Amino acid sequence: MSLFNIPDGVDVIEVRKKVNKMLSEARKKAKSKKCILCGKEQSSFCNSHSVPQMCLRPIADKGKVLHASLAMGFDIGVVDLDGGVNKSGTFNYICRECDAKFFQDYENPDNIIQPPTDKILAEIAVKNMLLQLNKRDIELELLDIKQQELGIYENPDKLSELKTLDQKEYQEEVLFHQDIANNNKEGGYQILFWEVLPYKVPIATQSAMVLPYDMEGDILNDVGNMDKSVRMQYVHIAVLPLEKKSVVLAFYHKRDKIYRRLRHQINTTSREKVLQYINYLIFEHTENVYFSKTIEEELKNNKMIEKVSQEANGLPTFGHLSADNIFGMDYEAVKPEDIPNFLDESWAIKEEENTDGEE
Q: What three-state secondary structure class fits 305?
C-alpha cells in the first residue's frame, strides 16, 4: 500500500481543499517585496520555471508532464500527479526582467549542447538555489500556519530555527553564484560529468543536492550536524532533454572540496555506471523532476522507484522515523542498480511516442 493513501471514510476533496488553502496562504505570506537578484521593489514577480520550458516541451504529451509526486506514491486526490508545461516547476521569486535576462545563456538550446562555460554553470546554480530558497521561505510560513491551525509540532521554534539557518545559507549561495555570472569569473567550477546524449531521455530535472555519501558509501556531508558554523556543500545536477538530444550535467564549485573524491570515483567509473548513479541521485535527492508519460506505468508500478523516492539520505518515509517503521532499524536503502536507469538509451523517447501541445 502506498504511504500516501487516504484512509477510508476521509473526504479526499476536503483534504485537498485544506492542503491547497494552507499552501496558498503560505505562498502569499512568503512573497518578497524585492527581487533578490536586482534588489528592486516589485508589485508582482515572474512565473519562473525551475527547469527551462525548452526542456519540458520535448518530453510533454499533449502539453503535460508527470510530476515527482507520481513516483513518490502520493494519492491523486490530494496532489496533482501531472501538469501542463506552463505550470510545472514554477516559482515566483524574481522580477520579469531578471528572469528574461539573467538565464538567457543556458536557456538556449544551441549553448547547452556546447561544453559549459562558468557563466552558464553559474546561471544554473543560481536557478537551483533560488528554488531552494523559495521552497524554504514557503515551508517557514507553512510551519507557522500548520501550528496555528493543527498544533502538530511539539517544538515549532526549533524547527523554525533550523529552516531559518537553511534560508540564510541559500541566500548566500544565490549571491555567491550570481557574482560569478555577473562578473564573468572563470575557473571556479569543477565538472563531474557532462555529455550530450544522441537521444531524448524521458526525464527533465535540475537541482542543487547535498550528498551525504559518495559512490562507495563514504561520508561527504554530515547532514545531521546542526552546528551553525557547518556549511553544507552542493552538487548541481541537470538533465536537459531537447528535441533529438539530451544534456546530462553534474558539477560543483571548487570551494566545495569534499567532492574531490567523488570526482575521482566518477572519472574511474564506466559511462554506463555514471549515468546509472546520476539517475539514482535524481530519485533520491530531488522533487524538482518531470517525466514523460512514456514511462508512466513503470513509475506507477515499480516499488523500488517508490521506495527510493520516499527515502531521505538512505532512511525511509522521508526520514520521519517512528515506531511504525522501527525507527529505520534494519532498513535496506535502495541502490542505483535497483531502479531502472531512465538515462539509458533503452528508455529513450521515440519520435512517434510524443504528441506535444501546450495546455
A: helix
With contact defined as beta carbons under 8 Å apart, do 203 and 289 qualify? yes
Helix (H, G, I), strand (E, B) or coil at 290: strand
> Does the pTM exceed 0.85?
yes
Nearest in space to 93 (alpha carbons), one of 39, 120, 130: 130
- Based on the number of CB atoms within 10 Å of its own CB, is 282 exposed (0-12), middle (13-18) or buried (19 or more)? buried
Question: Does residue 265 sit in helix, strand or coil?
Answer: helix
Starting at the earlier edge strand, list the strands of the sheet with 64-67.
82-84, 64-67, 289-291, 203-209, 235-241, 246-253, 189-197
> Which positions ≥6 away from 136 have C-beta within 8 Å?
163, 166, 167, 170
What is the secondary structure of 87-133 as a DSSP string? GTTEE--S-HHHHHHHTTTTS-HHHHTSPPPHHHHHHHHHHHHHHHH
pLDDT tens track for 37-85: 999 998 889 999 999 999 999 999 999 999 999 998 876 666 788 999 9
Residue with cell 515551508: 139
Compute the distance between CA of residue 244 and CA of residue 334 in angstroms, rounded to an integer.
31
